[in-house]
Design a protein that fits this description.
The complex is a heterodimer of chains A (182) and B (598). Chain A has a domain of 125 residues. Chain A is 63% helix and 4% strand. In chain A, strands 1-2 form a two-stranded antiparallel ribbon. In chain A, a hairpin with a 5-residue loop joins strand 1 and strand 2. The longest helix of chain A is centred in the middle third of the chain and has 84 residues. The radius of gyration of chain A is 54 Å and the shape is rod-shaped. The N terminus and C terminus of chain A are likely disordered. Chain B is built from 18 helices and 23 strands. With 598 residues, chain B is an alpha+beta fold. The longest helix of chain B has 32 residues. Chain B has a domain of 337 residues: 3-Layer(aba) Sandwich (Beta-lactamase), CATH 3.40.710. Classes of the chains: A mainly alpha (182), B alpha+beta (598). The interface between A and B is large, with 41 and 40 residues.
């Protein structure tokens, strides 16, 4: 900032000097410059030093405040925007992460529930299967007092609409006489 | 850049003339120092960069892998083995999820306390658990095939170091019913017998796995990696068996086995029109869920693997050949003596008798050996062999069951005179129960033999049904011959026949008894071998639906097939017809002419 401000001043003061000494603000005497360029170590340094310290130091201090505050005024929204974006993104990520984590936990929970249901289903199915095997049904039927069916008779409808009895139905034997099982 | 060199801009802070490093060294020395310094720096740089390259490039994959392994746990997901169902979808075998309880003893804090908590839940003695949990190991199996309810209960205890792995359990809800057909699986879950063995590839399925990113405690990280390759469950195999008929068949055979003389009884029921096996069993059977406690000699399926000499049931083949070849008709009358010479020996009828004028029907109804041999001689050995093979003897039926026997049938060219007299009456030739049933299936199905099959379809987990390939079907005898055979076989069960006990009230039954000498395994001769009594038949004779073949091995009895096998046949057939809703025969049994004048 300093150098740019200085250059602006320098330009207005001495446009010709831009290529050579951009940092120069006050018309320095050509003598010391020439001396510097061409001079040797034997040239005394004491002469330009006070000039630098006095003039430039003050000038810099004075020119710094004004353009900085102007710039600050101009860039403040941008900086704020960046800061807001950073904060917003961070918060957003945090929220997103939390939501994902919550969902993930929920999914895990639901999966566990699902497994539980599947287990329950399996248990019930097993119960149905083991209860419906022929041996189990036969046992339950005998226990309920049923007997194996005897010969069945059928009424067959003839093409002419009449019916004919096929087979001779027989009353079932009393449970005590029945051969259990088949 | 002359302009940057402003006076005083880069002046040394040292006092002029003060000593600098290297001051006092000559230019050469300073150059040397710089060079060595440079070499040192480059060496260090090469070392550091080299190490980095080794870590990143060469060992990088290994380290990345190790890091991943540290975080990722892979759990196998066991595929559920496919079910084996009967034709109505009732399960003979199916698999349910269960777990193997395993422990990492290094994590188990109090082995004794943990063992005490688990002993009743797992049903494993406490000392055994304590010993396992105290081992210097990282993996011990505490119990296998533990039910989900138990694992839940264990889970609630929150014991450290205890975890679960998939270990599905194979269930055979029907127990011994169909056991010999279904077979069983070994401890590793692979099929070792029956359908479980034949359809191992289809039933097994493919295991999957789950990879989960876990935290230090071994718990899954909720938002971490959790990818799983699901297991592909096995296909479901649907059989042609009817579970109810199978149960009744086995019950009836079980009863036969308890008569004191029968050591083995087998039966098979075939659907006449499709060749499907509707029931197949023998006693003693076994429970596939408990196979390890069964005598290993009983773990087969005798219906397809045991061969025996069928005896007179074979006469159906001989007479079919005689009718088909035009040698005789059902009413052709022959003068049949009570005995006939065959090479070096004499074959007699069941009881020797003076010459009788029997029709061919009478020969079959009376089960005359002499009459059958007379007809067989008319047919000729070579032709007879042709018919025997056409009816499926001497070769496997290719049913989907392991260990099937082809039976024994020598070439007719090798037959001796006595063998040539024995084969037509079912001696000197061996068959399985299934082959015996298949002969009668061909006769009942208007002369078309369909190879018996027991698998209906295979269903993939997605529901895609693949029907079993259609079995080979061949015409063995003409329909006219088949009709004549059905008529003649009905005479066997009729008045004057050998098997009135094979009758079923309301239905017309056709069938044939057999009482064959049983080869004594001890001496490889007939002496002391007892008999194999058989009955094979179909019903209703006027519209056949089922074929039932029964054979009983009776080493200590000389009872005939008509007395012991026919009632078993009748009971099984009666149930098959009644349960299937087959309408009783509408026509009366014809009058059979068993004898006449030549």
């Amino acid at each position: 900032m300093t150098s740019r401000a200085a250059r602006v001043t320098a330009r207005s003061a001495a446009p010709y000097a831009r290529a050579t000494t951009p940092r120069t603000t006050t018309p320095r005497t050509t003598a010391p410059r020439g001396t510097t360029r061409t001079g040797t170590r034997s040239t005394p340094r004491a002469t330009p030093r006070p000039e630098l310290r006095l003039v430039q130091g003050v000038t810099t201090a004075r020119t710094r405040r004004r353009p900085t505050s102007a710039l600050w005024n101009r860039r403040a929204p941008f900086v704020l925007l960046v800061v807001a974006l950073l904060v917003g993104t961070t918060l957003g990520l945090l929220v997103l992460n939390t939501v994902i984590a919550v969902d993930s936990l929920k999914a895990t929970q639901l999966r566990a529930d699902n497994a539980q249901r599947a287990q329950e289903l399996q248990r019930l199915e097993q119960q149905v299967v083991s209860g419906s095997t022929p041996a189990e049904i036969a046992r339950a039927a005998v226990a309920a007092g049923l007997v194996p069916a005897g010969p069945a008779a059928y009424l067959v409808i003839e093409p002419d609409g009449g019916s004919v009895l096929r087979g001779s139905p027989e009353p079932a034997t009393a449970p005590g006489d029945a051969e259990g099982g088949d | 850049m002359p302009n940057t060199v402003r006076p005083g801009a880069f002046t040394s802070r040292r006092a002029p003339g003060s000593r600098r490093s290297g001051a006092g060294l000559s230019v050469d020395q300073r150059g040397l120092r710089n060079r060595w310094g440079l070499v040192l720096m480059i060496t260090l740089l090469v070392l550091v960069v080299g190490r980095l390259a080794v870590l990143q490039g060469v060992d990088g994959a290994a380290y990345a892998n190790a890091a991943e392994q540290d975080r990722l746990r892979t759990y196998p997901i066991a595929a559920l083995r496919g079910a084996v169902l009967d034709r109505d979808g009732n399960p003979f075998a199916y698999t349910v999820e269960a777990s193997r309880v395993v422990a990492d003893p290094t994590v188990v804090a109090h082995p004794a306390r943990t063992a005490r908590a688990l002993t009743t839940l797992l049903g494993v003695p406490e000392p055994e658990l304590t010993e396992k949990l105290s081992r210097d190991d990282r993996y011990v199996v505490l119990a296998a095939q533990v039910s989900p309810e138990t694992t839940d209960a264990i889970d609630e205890l929150g014991l450290p170091g205890i975890s679960f792995e998939d270990d599905p359990v194979r269930l055979y809800p029907a127990g011994t019913v169909g056991g010999q057909v279904i077979g069983f699986v070994g401890r590793d879950g692979a099929g070792l017998a029956g359908i479980e063995q034949t359809f191992e590839d289809e039933l097994a399925g493919t295991n999957g796995h789950r990879r989960v990113e876990v935290g230090s405690g071994g718990n899954p990280i909720p938002s971490g990696i959790d990818e799983s390759t699901p297991a592909t469950d096995g296909d479901t195999v649907q059989l042609t068996l009817d579970q109810d008929l199978q149960y009744v068949t086995e019950q009836r055979l079980g009863k036969a086995c308890q008569d004191g003389a029968t050591t083995r009884a087998s039966a098979v029921v075939l659907d006449v029109h499709t060749g499907h096996v509707v029931a197949m069993g023998s006693c003693p059977g076994y429970d596939p869920g408990n196979y390890s406690k069964t005598d290993p000699n009983l773990l087969g399926n005798p219906v397809v693997s045991d061969v025996f000499e069928p005896g007179s049931v074979m006469k159906a083949v001989t007479l079919s050949a005689a009718l088909e070849e035009g040698v005789a008709k059902p009413d052709t009358v022959l003068s049949v003596n009570g005995h006939i010479e065959a090479g070096d020996r004499v074959v007699t009828d069941a009881h020797d008798h003076a010459p009788v004028n029997w029709t061919v029907t009478g020969i079959l109804a009376k089960s005359s050996n002499v009459g059958t041999i007379m007809l067989a001689r008319e047919v000729g050995d070579e032709k007879l062999e042709h018919y025997l093979r056409a009816f499926g003897l001497g070769s496997t039926t290719d049913i989907e069951l392991p260990g099937e026997s082809a039976g024994i049938l020598q070439k007719s060219a090798d037959w001796t005179a006595s063998r040539a007299a024995n084969v037509p009456i079912g001696q000197g030739v061996s068959v399985t129960t299934l082959q015996m049933a298949s002969i009668y299936q061909a006769i009942a199905n208007d002369g078309v033999r369909i190879e018996p099959r027991i698998v209906e379809s295979v269903t993939a987990p997605g529901g895609k049904v693949t029907d079993a390939p259609a079995p080979k079907s061949t015409r063995v005898i003409s329909q006219a011959t088949a009709d004549q055979m059905a008529y003649m076989l009905e005479a066997v069960v009729g008045p004057g026949g050998t098997a009135p006990l094979g009758q079923i009230e309301g239905f017309r039954v056709a069938g044939k008894t057999g009482t064959a000498q049983r080869a004594n395994p001890a001496c490889n001769c007939y002496a002391g071998g007892g008999y194999v009594t058989t009955f094979v038949g179909f019903a209703p004779a006027d519209d056949p639906q089922y074929v039932v073949a029964v054979d009983l091995e009776r080493p200590t009895s000389d009872a005939e097939g008509g007395q012991v096998a026919a009632p078993v046949f009748a009971d099984i057939m009666r149930y098959a017809l009644t349960a299937d809703g087959v309408v009783p025969s509408g026509t009366p049994r014809p009058d059979f002419v068993l004898s006449g004048t030549p």
